[in-house]
From TrEMBL:
Gene3D superfamilies, A to Z: NADP-dependent oxidoreductase domain
Pfam families reported in the protein's UniProt record: Aldo_ket_red
Domain NADP-dependent oxidoreductase: 20-268
Designated name of the protein: Aldo/keto reductase
GO MF annotations, alphabetized: oxidoreductase activity
Length: 281
């Protein structure tokens, strides 16, 4: 399991990023777990899970501070992602929020900055803030999160809106609604889809059918659930504060699911049979 063998996924620019990254929601909130969480994040980077996803919302900045500490001296190895809260997402607020994130992350630049979800500010305002940040070289790419097809169509019709790089959405075996319309739209337009909560915050792991597929493959349920997301051409950012779990999760990037496994998973977790509004956690 070397970093070199990691699967990648292309951004619209053609730049390749690790398809399997790391989330950070709820990390940095418990002092007793801090050292282990830092070790887990650093191990993930060692193993090639170099996309690190955080947000100003997580622990009111505590997750960003943890990431800043974990990545000290390693910033260049990582594709760093953070998010602006919708309430901050007017033009000036977006710039100010990003500067706050950069301070907590001890970074000069984010690789990707996302609107966390759509709120009251017009998308034009957020887009203007993102454009200011690109010009100031404080972010390299911008994107969105929790935007369904209609919102994406509206966004990409705005001047400069077609520069959106990523839509980060809830996607896993038990949440397949985006396969009906959003995922085909992303494939058609080249916008990269990134799955959050790819193991449904651990709830998926209790499903018997997943366990059976995993056992037949000599893999773990987590590895199968993550490998399935990657098979769909979607990036995944599982979160773990445990080095053992990170090592296990990394194994998913080397696991290719044969047709029989995919069929068994379709049976247990059927794809959508009609339009399904985008779900959020
Ligand atoms: N854009 C958005 O609105 C949004 C929303 C939700 C999440 N996110 C992002 O997506 C990331 C991932 O989603 P998530 O944190 O909601 O859920 P998740 O990654 O689906 O699940 C995280 C949970 O699974 C456990 N876990 C991880 N690996 C495991 C393993 N190998 N075996 C057993 N348990 C394991 C973790 O516990 P341990 O720490 O004990 O391993 C944790 O409790 C977030 O951290 C965040 O960065 C974004």
């Amino acid at each position: 399991m070397s970093a070199e063998s990691a699967r990648t996924i292309a951004l619209p620019s053609g730049e390749e990023i690790a398809a399997l990254g790391q989330g950070t929601w709820y990390l940095g909130e418990d002092p007793a777990r801090r050292e282990q969480e830092i070790a887990a994040l650093r191990l993930g980077v060692d193993l090639g899970m170099t996309v690190v996803d955080t947000a100003e919302m997580y622990g009111d900045g505590a997750a960003e501070e943890l990431v800043g500490e974990a990545l000290r001296g390693r910033r260049e190895e990582v594709f760093l992602v953070s998010k602006v809260l919708p309430g901050h997402a007017d033009r000036k607020g977006t710039v100010a929020a990003c500067e706050g994130s950069l301070r907590r992350l001890r970074a000069e630049r984010l690789d990707l900055y996302l609107l966390h979800w759509r709120g009251g500010w017009p998308l034009e305002e957020t887009l203007a803030g993102f454009t200011d940040l690109i010009e100031a070289e404080k972010i390299r790419y911008w994107g969105v999160s929790n935007l369904d097809v209609a919102d994406m169509v509206e966004l990409t019709a705005l001047p400069g809106g077609d520069a959106v790089a990523v839509d980060q959405v809830l996607y896993n075996l038990s949440r397949r609604g985006i396969e009906w319309d959003l995922l085909p739209w992303c494939r058609e337009t080249g916008v990269t889809a990134m799955a959050y909560s790819p193991i449904e915050q651990g709830r998926l792991l209790k499903v018997e059918a997943l366990g059976a597929v995993a056992q037949a493959l000599g893999a773990t349920p987590t590895q199968v659930a993550l490998a399935w997301v990657l098979e769909q051409g979607v990036a995944a950012i599982p979160r773990s504060g445990s080095p053992d779990h990170v090592r296990e999760n990394r194994g998913a990037a080397d696991l290719h699911l044969p047709a029989e496994a995919l069929d068994a998973l379709d049976e247990a977790f059927p794809p959508p049979s009609g339009p399904t509004p985008l779900e959020m956690l």
